[in-house]
Every structure is written in structure tokens, then in C-alpha cells.
Design a protein that fits this description.
The structure holds two protein chains of two kinds. By secondary structure, chain A is mostly helical. Chain A folds into three domains: 146 residues, no CATH class; 430 residues, no CATH class; 76 residues. A two-stranded antiparallel sheet of chain A has the order 1-2. The longest helix of chain A is centred in the last third of the chain and has 49 residues. Chain A is globular and about 120 Å long. The model of chain A has no long low-confidence stretch (mean pLDDT 90). By secondary structure, chain B is mainly α. Helices cover 74% and strands 3% of the residues of chain B. In chain B, β1 and β2 form a beta hairpin. In chain B, α2 runs parallel beside α4 and α15 runs antiparallel to α17. The longest helix of chain B is centred in the middle third of the chain and has 34 residues. The model of chain B has no long low-confidence stretch (mean pLDDT 91). Classes of the chains: A mainly alpha, B mainly alpha. At the A-B interface, β1, α6, α7 and α28 of A face α6, α11, α13, α15 and α16 of B.
């Protein structure tokens, strides 16, 4: 069943790709475009539905098992075998992969359905679904693969799908370049990942999860392995995660990735693929839990990324770019949690984020669809009256991500902030609190500028604004419901106690058997109780909300005059230009690389090939020289002979 | 006759020569049409492929002996015999040859405008020479085939090439002939050494393995003979810095020539390393290993950098070969099972992927008569099917998992990591660089708007061209998803080489014994 769950999307992709996108269907059967599109949508969504249903069945089967036995395996065949190295195509369904698979398949289904409406006019409709399906296939391999190489297969595979979909409208050079950038930057991350795999094999003699994690959690084995090796493994894998999950400094591909169609941004670049790094760290919890150094690196990079991205998001005007930076920032939250060993909290935020970020992206898609392709929020405003449903669901998503109490984002964020504080990472906790405030600020700003106030839409466009079709609004409603109530699967225990439930964090209890945590938790003296931390994060969120409302709804004039103050204007342009990171990368890496390549090309032509041709010229010249000796003059020959004889004689005399 | 179905190396080696005769007869019978001889040549090469399949199916993985052996006296007084046989190293090179040649002929269907008969005859002679190179186990026989490869290739480049074809053909010929001249001297030296040590004259390769060549440093007898062999093979691979004949040969050669060159000819060099250098000169190999590994790594990075700078698509693919072959060589020099097997696997994969790349470039060239990247742009829109094949091939070339390239790269780098992790780190940069130059090239050719009017009217690939690319595409996926049938046949030979010559691991018979014990 596990195999079919993975293979179903591949089958869909093969059908849509080989039969429809290639044009064979048209050649063989003909028929009009509408029926063809119907079959394509049916196949594309149907296979995902099959996967989603199978995942759910397996989930129930898993849930019925005893918590410590919650593992379902399925082995297909030996993939690579060479000497003592062997890796099988084998899938593992445990609580961790179950959570991921549920999120991936069901969110994918919602987004596939949304795509029917969103992409209905596209010329390459079947190619789009073929790509989207193959993405789900690779994502499922990534999640369910039971060894590092198999995870790597999915890892690179989703990168490929991402590349193809970002550059889906390849006739636009910038979009094609964005796709390529995503692939290459991810390859840099994969470089770390693959070296990590080699080191794991070198140390543990296997790449299979059970064998590696079994040995890594066995104290008698770990006593022999130097601690620094575990740190290096953890950090190499983290390089991969940094690439895939868009953390500093490899996040630069994600904002550009917004060149792809919106459903792609929602599915791949917000809800699922970019969270693969978080999944990987949770999966490899045994390395991180045992390496304090690695943990500090992960938390610090994550905190920095969260803050950096949030500060950039405040000033962006492209609705998708704001959401992209928001995603980077939220991924930072997940990594902060994972870095302190709060794996359940990190995974929980992954789930709730998938709900509300997918909602926000699809909502922005609905907006862009309604406005006929407009993405600049300066040309929006007041859209609430025109597209009320989109506007309402977008508001829900905004409130959920902001961390407004009792929506999904509130619970997961609270868990993360609590765990940061409790593990003693106070500075990181303060950074996270600031980020909460900034998150509220940029999200409310985005909402107000887009949906509230007077409309800035040109009259020309205004007459065409329409609410999106049902295939698009129903997904929005479903995601809105999930964004509101999705958090209740993981209500922190201390909150649950208030209403008399001892174990309210069902999610945590479900996840914990799959991750490795230290038995002895060093408890930091509580300056404040749990509640005070919660209250602090609510306060900082509200500060952000209030600032946004004040500056963007109540008194926009003050904002405009404030920006003229030099220090603010500097900060503004620094944020608006994204901390000049792209420019810095360009100067430090891209240009020198290009120059080096050009120089190498010249070197090859002039020096190496030049040397080869030089040698051949020398031979020719020497031959010409020799030829002149063959003059045909007998006297000269005789003279040479005499000289030769003399030389030999001298040699014999002196050597004897 | 029955032996054909069991794999008969003599028949497989010389059948293409008979095919050449058939082509000549067909050209006489049908004077005014090229079609019969083209179809004839195609059928001959397909039959050749079919009769080579039993080598695969009947290959015994429980032995490390030479298989399908044939040995007859030839010049008994000199110990020269007619001796053929294959093992896990040569098996897939023979199969690669018989697989690629029919594809090449089909790809050249309309590209060869003049002298079709001569072209076909030369390709068929070339096939015999190539198969013979990989199957012969007698030094002299090997050398004859090895040299015989040069002649048809020289004419293919020199006659059907583009503007600077004569320069490229002569460069190719002299460069590689220079290498083999030194090798011949070394062969004679070893021959006399064998007579000294064993009292019998023998040119049997397997006897050469037994010779004890005194090793007294790189300028001693073993060192110098090693260098003579090394030059011959390193030029052929080609290893940095002996590679500059390759881009010229590729750029000027007709598509069919480039395909055979990249897919098979380069592998003769790698094959030489595995068949002769490592087993005959283990001490010298070990001594020079750091040097050779570093040269291989330079090749990986340097080849990729130079590839990135190219404006000519064919040259770019040529330099990508330098980079990939660097990785193959690295795998061989790390002297462990994953490295060697990975290197072998990558070599076969490279034959398929790069062969496909040259075919694709050729298809574009036939339509546009240019190979300059800047002349293209947006071809995906006008040639969607070609775009799909090109994408698959590009991905295979940059080592995407589940495609053929990945398996070899992964194993080579894994093996390198166990040998020296720095080699692995440096080699793995090839993964990043490969993605950079290949995707950049793909983008400039296939993506973007169709801004050149000449490109708007291009016609997508036809059925024949699909049939050329399809077998390659299938192999890319098959070898990526299920490499076991290939790896399991390579493993015993590779393992035996490592154990007997480099004291590395356990012998195959021991492994089998252990496996049987476990099963009992």
C-alpha cells in the first residue's frame, strides 16, 4: 500500500506527460481541448486523491498500534549494491513521516483542485499537471524513504520539480533564470547533504535509518565515535536543509522562485517542499540532540534568518514577495524549535504553517486572478468589496500567522517561543519575540494595503474584477477552516489543564516516539511561568498589529513623513533592497566565477592547446633543419663521418 | 552456429566486417538508391547488438575467470595467439558499443550527404575494431585493434567533418598514435621480461599479469613502462592536460563521429587503465596515485569551468566529457570497490548520456547549421519533443537521482570519501558545476523568447529521430532505477582486481562461500 501511495502520483505524471503534454493524445484521438483538459484534471487530481486516501488509511492503521510500535515498512528491491554498500528502495511510515505525508497529500489535493481554476487558460495545462504530480511523487519519496540515499532521491527530485515549475513559463527569460537559480542554489545545499551521507556511511557502515539511528542512539557505540564527527554530520546535513528550506545564506532562491504559478508557490515554496529541511532535522534528531554545537548553529542561523526575512517583508510591494519572505521567516521559527530539540513544536509549526501559508498564497492567487495578473499591492486596495470571500479567508490566514490567540498559528508559535526560553536560548527568544512583532506588522500591512481603504485599481481593471470560481474558493474555505481549528491538535499541555484536559497536546504525543530527545531535560529556572511567556508573545504580536493599523489605516500621513527622516529612510531602503544580499552574492560569487570560467577557457586555448601546437611546430622546424643537412654534397658527408669517428674515438679513449 | 545464441566473441567481433561487405554488395545491386545499404547497415548492427546480448544473459557472476574465451594459435613461435574473452570490466563496454552503433547509423540517416557507402563501411570497420579492442586478451591482437580504431575515425572526421576537419583529424591521429607508439615499446619490454622470468614467449595479457617488474621508483623499469602505458591511455581518456585534441575532434566531426568518439572511443582509455595499468603495474600505480587522483580532480573542475565558458554547444559537451571522465578516473584511482565500480558505471552512463547529447546537438545542427549557443533561444516552443529529450539527457548528465548518471557519481564520490575525504569534497563540486553549465546552456538554447526568425520555423523531431533518442532515454531511466543487473556483473571482476593486486578486501570466492554459508 505504501508503494502505491508513492507511485500513484508518478503514474499520473506519466499519463499526463507522455500522453497529453507530448501531444500524442491529440494526434491519436483528437477531440476538443475541453475534454482533454477534463481528463488531465481528472487524472492529475485523482492520483493525488488516491495517495491522500491511502495515507489516511495508513494513518488509522498506525494510530491503532501501540505508540512504540508505530512503524510500517515496505521493501521493494535493492537499488544500489556495491561491495559493503547497499541501499534498498524501502519505505518507512512512522508518526513523523505520517504527519508529513498527511500534510503533503491533502494540501496537494486542495492545491491541485485550485489549479484547475487558476490554470484553466494556460496553453500547457497538461504539462503543468505532469510537473505538479511528479513533485508529489518525489516529495513522498523524500518523506517515506527509509535511508539517506533514498531521501536524497526525493530531495533532488523535488528540486527538479521546483526548477521545472518556477520556469514553467520559460519564454520569459527571468522566469527561466529564477528556476535555474533555485536548482543551482539547492545543489550547493545538496553538496553538503551528500557529503553528510558519505560520512554517515563511513562512520556507521550503513545508510539505512534504523541501522544508523540505532547505532547513533546506542551509548556503547557512541563512546567510540568522537563527538566532533557527530557535529560534522549534523552540520553537513544542515547545509542541505539550509538550501532546501531557504535559510540564510542560501535563501536567495526562494523570493525569485515566486516566478512560478501561484499554486506552485503555495504548494512547493510554502507548504511542503521548503519544509523538507525541517523534516530532515526532525528525522535526524539523534545527531542534533547529541551535538550542542550543531544545535547552537541551527538555532542561531534560524533566528537570524527569521529576523532578516521579516525585516525585508515589511517594505516589499509585490504581494508574492511579501509572502515569500514571510515563508523564509516562518521556516526560521521551525528551525529554531528543531535546534533546541523541541522537535514536536517544530513539526507542529510546520503543519499549521502549511495550512495558513497555503491559504495566504492561494488567496493572493485569487487576488491576482481577479485583477488579471496584477501583483503590486500599490495598485490594489479596497478589494474587500469586490472579492469578499477571498478577502475574508485572507484575513483569517493573516490572523493565524500573526499569532492571534486561538487560531492555529498561536499554539504552534507559543510552543516554539516557550521551548526557546526554557532551553536557555534567551537571546534567540528575544529575537523570536521581535520577529513575532514584525510578522504582525508586515502581514497586517499587507492585508490593509490590499483589501482595505480606498481602491487604487484602475477603472479599466475594476470593471473586470470578479470573485474566483468555486474550484478556487472552496480550497480557500477548507484552508481557512484548517487555519482556525488546525491548532487544536496540539494545544500545549499547560493550556489544556485549564479546561481540564491533562494531555491536550495530542500532536506531541504522536510525534515523540519518532524523535530522539535527551532523557534529562536541563530545566532553566522559570523567571516567569508558561503563561507569562505566552502573554509576552501575544503582547508583541499586538504591538505589531497596532503599529500596522496606525501607520497604514489610521494615519498614513505620519508614515510618509516619518520615512523622510534620514535614519528611517536609510532603514527603509536597506529593507527594500533586501539588505543588498543579492548584490553581495553577485559580487562575491557570481562575477568572479564567470570571470574565472572565461579565463580558464582562454587558458585552455592559449596555454594548453598552444603548448601542444607549439610542440608540433618545434618538430616541424627541427625536421626542416635536418633536411638542410641532406645537401647531397659528398664532401660534406665525408666531413661529418670523419667528425663522428673522431668523437667515438675520443669517447673510447676517455672512458677507458 | 548454435554458439551464437550463447555468445560467440569471434562472431560478435567480426560480424560487422561481414556487414561492411554486405553494404558494398547492396550498393552495387542498388546503384541509384542509398536506402537499401542504409537499411542493410542498420539491420547488420541491430543483429550485432542482438547476438551480443547472450554475453549479458549468460554471464556468470560466480567466477572471476575470463568468460566466453576463445584461444587459437596464431604465431606460436612468438607466443602470439588469437585470444578473446571478457570479464565484468569489458562486458558492458562491448554491449555499449553494439548498442550505440545502430543508434549512430540511424542518426546519420540524412546527415551524411556524400559517400554514404564509404561512411557505412567505415563505421562497420570501426565497430569491429572497437569490439576487438575490448575483447582481445592477446597484447598484439589488442594493439592491432587499438590502432585499427584510429583509421576509420580519422577518415570519418577528415571526410565528413566541418571546416577545420583536416586539422582536427590529423591532430586526433597524431596525438593518439604518439601515445600508442610508446605503449608498443613498453609491450615489447614486458614481453622480453616475461621470457626472462618464465622462459616462454607469451603475449597473453593474463600472463603479463604475472610478470614481476622490478619497481625502483618512477624512473625504474616498472615506472617507465608504466608511464608509457599511462600516456597512451591518458591521452585517450583524455585526462587533463592531454585533452585538447578532444574539443577539436568533437567540434569538427560529424554527429555520428562525435557520438562514437564520446560514447565509446574515450572508454578505450579507461579500459586500458583497468585492463593493463592497474593489474600489470600495481606498485607504480600505488606510488603515483596521489598525483593521478589530483590530476583527475583538476580535470573535473577545470573541464567544468572551461565548459561553462564555451559558446559552441558541441564544445561545451566536449568539455563536459573532460569533467565527467575526470570523475571516472577519480573513481578508479581511489582503489576501492565503490570507486572502481562507480567509475565503470559512470563510464557506461556517460556513453549513453553524452552520446544522446551529441545526437541532440546534431539534430539541431542539421536544422539550423550552427552550433553557436547565442544563435538559439526558445527552441522549447517550436520543438517540444526535442526539448523533453534534451531535458532528460541534461538531467542524466548532471546526475539527477533515478537517472543513470547519479549511480556512478554517487559511488565514485562515496569511494573517494573512504579513500580521502578531501578528494570527495573536491570531486563533489563537480555536481554543482555540472548543474551550472548544463542548465545555463539548456536555458540559452531552449528557453526564453524565440527571437531569431530562423528559429521560428524549425520543425520538431520526426519519428526516426524519436527512435534514435528513445532507446537512449529508456537506458537512462533503467540504469538509474535498477542498476543491480549491471553492478552485480561488474562487481566480481573489480573485487578480484582489488584483492589480488592491491590486497583490498576479500576475494570473490570467499564472498560466495560466505554467502552460501549464510544461506545454509
Amino acid at each position: 500500500m505504501l508503494a502505491w501511495l508513492v507511485l500513484a502520483p508518478l503514474i499520473g505524471s506519466v499519463i499526463n506527460g507522455l500522453l497529453f503534454a507530448s501531444g500524442f493524445w491529440k494526434k491519436l484521438i483528437g477531440g476538443d481541448d475541453r475534454t482533454e483538459r477534463r481528463i488531465v484534471s481528472f487524472v492529475g487530481c485523482g492520483v493525488i486523491l488516491i495517495s491522500a486516501i491511502l495515507t489516511s488509511i495508513l494513518f488509522f492503521r498506525l494510530f491503532s498500534l501501540d505508540p512504540i510500535q508505530r512503524q510500517i515498512f515496505e521493501e521493494l528491491f535493492v537499488w544500489i549494491s556495491s561491495g559493503d554498500f547497499s541501499v534498498k528502495i524501502e519505505f518507512l511510515f512512522d508518526s513523523l513521516s505520517c504527519v508529513m505525508a498527511l500534510v503533503v497529500t491533502w494540501i496537494s489535493l486542495i492545491i491541485h483542485v485550485f489549479s484547475i481554476g487558476y490554470m484553466h487558460e494556460d496553453r500547457s495545462y497538461s504539462r503543468y499537471f505532469a510537473y505538479l504530480n511528479i513533485f508529489v511523487f518525489f516529495m513522498l519519496i523524500l518523506i517515506l524513504g527509509n535511508s539517506f540515499p533514498l531521501m536524497f532521491v526525493g530531495w533532488e527530485g523535488v528540486g527538479l520539480a521546483s526548477y521545472l515549475l518556477i520556469g514553467f513559463w520559460y519564454e520569459d527569460k527571468e522566469k527561466a533564470s529564477a528556476g535555474r537559480k533555485a536548482f543551482v542554489v539547492n545543489r550547493i545545499g545538496d553538496f553538503g547533504f551528500i557529503l553528510g551521507i558519505f560520512l554517515i556511511f563511513f562512520i556507521f557502515g550503513s545508510t539505512n535509518f534504523q541501522e544508523v539511528f540505532g547505532k547513533a542512539s546506542d551509548p556503547s557505540f557512541m563512546n567510540v565515535v568522537p563527538g566532533v564527527v557527530i557535529t560534522i554530520i549534523a552540520l553537513l546535513l544542515f547545509v542541505g536543509a539550509v538550501g532546501k528550506s531557504a535559510q540564510f545564506p542560501l535563501y536567495v532562491w526562494l523570493p525569485d522562485a515566486m516566478a512560478g504559478p501561484i499554486p506552485v508557490s503555495a504548494l512547493i515554496h510554502a507548504a511542503t517542499m521548503v519544509t523538507a529541511g525541517a523534516y530532515m532535522i526532525a528525522r535526524c534528531s539523534v545527531f542534533y540532540t547529541q551535538s550542542h554545537t550543531a544545535q547552537i548553529v541551527v538555532v542561531s542561523i534560524a533566528a537570524f534568518t527569521a529576523l532578516l526575512a521579516a525585516t525585508i517583508a515589511i517594505t516589499q510591494n509585490d504581494i508574492k514577495k511579501v509572502l515569500a519572505y514571510s515563508t523564509i521567516s516562518q521556516l526560521g521559527y521551525m528551525f529554531m524549535a528543531l535546534g533546541v530539540g523541541a522537535y514536536a513544536a517544530g513539526m507542529f509549526h510546520l503543519v499549521t504553517h502549511a495550512f495558513f501559508k497555503a491559504l495566504l498564497f492561494l488567496g493572493s492567487g485569487s487576488v491576482i486572478h481577479a485583477l488579471g495578473g496584477e501583483q503590486d499591492i500599490r495598485n490594489m486596495g479596497g478589494l474587500r468589496k469586490f472579492i469578499p470571500l477571498t478577502s475574508f479567508t485572507f484575513l483569517i490566514g493573516t490572523l493565524a500567522i500573526t499569532g492571534i490567540p486561538f487560531l492555529s498559528g498561536f499554539f504552534s508559535k507559543d510552543e516554539i517561543l516557550g521551548s526557546l526560553y526554557e532551553s536557555g536560548y534567551v537571546i534567540h527568544w528575544i529575537v523570536a519575540l521581535m520577529t513575532v512583532c514584525l510578522t504582525a506588522l508586515y502581514m497586517i500591512r499587507l492585508y490593509i494595503v490590499t483589501f482595505e481603504g480606498r481602491t487604487r485599481v484602475s477603472n479599466n481593471v475594476k470593471s473586470h474584477i470578479h470573485e474566483s470560481p468555486l474550484s478556487m474558493t472552496i480550497p480557500l474555505l477548507i484552508l481557512a477552516v484548517l487555519s482556525i481549528f488546525g491548532g487544536y491538535i496540539g494545544v500545549p499541555d499547560f493550556m489544556g489543564k485549564v479546561i481540564g484536559i491533562a494531555h491536550s497536546n495530542v500532536f506531541k504525543d504522536f510525534i515523540m516516539p519518532s524523535v530522539f530527545v535527551k532523557e534529562t531535560v536541563t530545566s532553566v529556572p522559570h523567571l516567569f511561568g508558561h503563561w507569562s511567556i505566552t502573554v509576552l508573545s501575544i503582547i508583541s504580536a499586538f504591538i505589531g498589529v497596532l503599529i500596522a493599523i496606525y501607520f497604514y489605516a489610521i494615519k498614513p500621513s505620519i508614515r510618509e513623513s516619518l520615512i523622510k527622516v534620514p535614519i528611517f529612510s536609510f532603514l527603509y531602503s536597506f529593507s527594500y533592497r533586501k539588505w543588498f544580499v543579492d548584490e553581495a552574492f553577485d559580487t562575491i560569487f557570481v562575477r568572479p566565477f564567470n570571470a574565472l570560467a572565461v579565463e580558464s577557457g582562454k587558458f585552455d586555448l592559449k596555454r594548453i592547446d598552444g603548448a601542444v601546437n607549439g610542440i608540433s611546430e618545434v618538430v616541424v622546424k627541427a625536421a626542416t633543419l635536418m633536411r638542410s643537412a641532406q645537401s647531397g654534397l659528398l664532401r660534406l658527408y665525408a666531413a661529418f663521418m670523419a667528425l663522428g669517428v673522431l668523437a667515438i674515438l675520443l669517447y673510447i679513449i676517455y672512458s677507458a | 552456429m548454435e554458439s551464437i545464441f550463447h555468445g560467440d566473441l569471434t562472431v560478435i567481433t567480426f560480424f560487422p566486417l561481414i556487414g561492411a561487405l554486405i553494404v558494398v554488395i547492396l550498393s552495387i545491386l542498388f546503384r541509384d538508391s542509398e536506402k537499401p545499404m542504409k537499411i542493410g547497415a542498420l539491420i547488420v548492427t541491430i543483429i550485432e547488438f542482438l547476438i551480443s546480448i547472450p554475453l549479458y544473459t549468460n554471464f556468470n557472476i560466480e567466477t572471476t575467470e575470463m568468460q566466453f574465451g576463445v584461444q587459437r594459435d596464431w604465431i606460436p613461435s612468438l607466443g602470439i595467439t588469437y585470444h578473446l574473452g571478457i570479464d565484468g570490466i569489458s562486458l558492458f563496454l562491448v554491449l555499449l558499443t553494439t548498442f550505440i552503433i545502430p543508434i549512430t547509423i540511424l542518426s546519420a540517416w540524412n546527415a551524411i550527404k556524400k559517400g554514404m557507402r564509404e561512411f557505412l563501411v567505415l563505421v562497420l570497420i570501426l565497430e569491429t575494431a572497437l569490439v576487438g579492442t575490448f575483447t582481445s586478451l592477446d597484447m598484439i591482437l589488442f594493439f592491432i585493434f587499438w590502432e585499427a580504431v584510429l583509421i576509420p575515425m580519422y577518415f570519418i572526421i577528415g571526410i565528413w567533418g566541418t571546416e577545420r576537419r583536416i586539422y582536427a583529424a590529423i591532430k586526433f591521429f597524431i596525438y593518439t598514435a604518439f601515445g600508442s607508439a610508446l605503449m608498443l615499446i613498453a609491450i615489447f619490454y614486458l614481453y622480453y621480461l616475461h621470457i626472462d622470468q618464465f622462459g616462454t614467449a607469451s603475449m597473453n595479457v593474463l600472463d603479463f599479469y604475472k610478470i614481476n617488474i622490478p619497481y625502483t621508483g618512477i624512473l625504474g623499469p616498472q615506472g617507465l613502462t608504466f608511464i608509457a602505458f599511462l600516456l597512451a591511455f591518458a591521452i585517450k581518456v583524455p585526462m587533463f592536460p592531454l585533452h585538447t585534441w578532444l574539443p577539436d575532434a568533437h567540434v569538427e566531426a560529424p554527429t555520428a563521429g562525435s557520438v562514437i568518439l564520446a560514447a565509446i572511443l574515450l572508454k578505450m582509455g579507461v579500459y586500458g587503465f583497468l585492463r593493463f595499468l592497474l593489474p600489470i603495474f600495481p606498485e607504480a600505480t600505488l606510488d603515483l596515485l596521489p598525483f593521478l587522483s589530483i590530476v583527475a580532480i583538476i580535470g573535473i573542475i577545470y573541464g567544468a569551468m572551461v565548459a561553462f565558458a564555451q559558446r559552441d554547444l558541441k564544445k561545451l559537451v566536449a568539455y563536459s566529457s573532460v569533467s565527467h571522465l575526470g570523475l571516472v578516473m577519480l573513481g578508479i584511482f581511489v582503489l576501492n570497490i565503490q570507486g572502481l565500480e562507480g567509475g565503470l558505471y559512470l563510464m557506461v552512463s556517460h556513453g549513453i548520456s553524452t552520446g544522446a547529447l551529441f545526437i541532440i546537438v546534431g539534430m539541431v545542427y542539421e536544422r539550423r547549421h550552427t552550433k553557436l549557443i547565442e544563435e538559439f533561444g526558445g527552441l522549447s516552443k517550436v520543438m517540444p519533443l526535442l526539448a523533453a529529450f534534451f531535458m532528460l539527457t541534461t538531467l542524466s548528465s548532471i546526475g539527477l537521482p533515478l537517472l543513470n548518471g547519479f549511480i556512478g557519481e554517487f559511488l565514485v564520490l562515496l569511494g573517494a570519501f573512504r579513500f580521502n575525504y578531501i578528494y570527495s569534497i573536491l570531486g563533489a563540486t563537480g555536481l554543482i558545476l555540472g548543474a551550472i553549465y548544463m542548465l545555463w546552456a539548456y536555458q540559452r538554447v531552449m528557453f526564453g523568447p524565440v527571437d531569431k526568425p530562423e528559429n521560428r520555423v524549425l520543425i520538431d523531431i520526426n519519428l526516426r529521430e524519436i527512435m534514435v533518442l528513445l532507446p537512449l532515454a529508456i537506458m537512462m531511466i533503467l540504469m538509474g532505477v535498477y542498476p543491480k543487473p549491471f553492478l552485480s556483473r561488474m562487481e566480481p571482476t573489480v573485487q578480484e582486481l582489488l584483492v589480488t593486486k592491491f590486497n583490498h578486501g576479500v576475494t570473490v570466492s570467499e564472498t560466495i562461500q560466505r554467502k552460501n554459508e549464510k544461506e545454509e
